[in-house]
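Go through this chain for my students:
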Amino acid sequence: MNKFQLSILLDETISFPEVLLKARETEEIAEIVTLLEEYDKGKTTKLLIKTADGVEVIEKSVIQIIESFGKKVEITTEEEVYQTNGPLYQVIERINDVTFIQISKSVYVQMKNIRRLELSFSGNYLVEVGKRKLSVSRRFVKELLRRLEKL
């Protein structure tokens, strides 16, 4: 039994997709709209970051590390480190990219930039990203290993 009916109409005369939703409840429509907005957000390849000097446009693909230091967030690329104010979760929401993974409470890394994973003397894992080695919190190790196996 289907929970929805899907109709597709191809029209070469339109310049962008058009979505028409019909439902009994506004809650159903709100859920679908949220999904569509999240899908659309994920398609952008650039991230706008407000810095002390203005607004920087950064390609998501060159970001290596995103880390929080209190109310400041640092975004590290191979060439530069950008600083912005605000909570880490807002930057991560704006990036909306599954290629990033959380390795500690305050650090995310882009999976493709992980060069090495090693066990430290203390029993913790260290991840090598670019020229840096970052500690992986125990609660994030299992997910990191699972996702690395899929690369």
